[in-house]
Amino acid sequence: xxxxxxxxxxxxxxxxxxxxxxxxxxxxxxxxxxxxxxxxxxxxxxxxxxxxxxxxxxxxxxxxxxxxxxxxxxxxxxxxxxxxxxxxxxxxxxxxxxxxxxxxxxxxxxxxxxxxxxxxxxxxxxxxxxxxxxxxxxxxxxxxxxxxxxxxxxxxxxxxxxxxxxxxxxxxxxxxxxxxxxxxxxxxxxx
Length: 191
What we know:
By secondary structure, the protein is mostly helical. The chain has helices spanning 9-17, 22-33, 36-52, 63-84, 108-127, 130-141, 146-153, 157-181. The chain contains eight helices and no strands.
């Protein structure tokens, strides 16, 4: 391995082991928080803590699970901290809207329906209680195995299975109601 000037062994090892998971951690943080800026802050905090305590990381352990645990704990701490803060109102003159150009190639009707459904699924996931949301995100979005999720959440595999089942059931009910309300399925159809 060629050593770059001004970079110590700890930094190189951290890059090799931890930073390769940056996209996965960011995607999970984005789905967990629901906001780009909050996700970026959470990822930054996660990797800062990981780097700070990298000397405690054991080579024989799963780095992705370790990073998810740090992220989960940081998220919980932020939530607790925010719940204790008084509400703030900002009047900086910006409405906070972000406009992104849309790709208009392809079939507009299908793209609109796909985007509509994506938004509804995203809202349904965000509406889940945190204990179910995290398991659903880690399993169904990130594709982690039950054993990995159990390690991240520090709980038994049976608890992971139970939370995943209940989370999926809640999602199914929410999306079924949406499908009925918008005419995707017959109003009289039973789930």
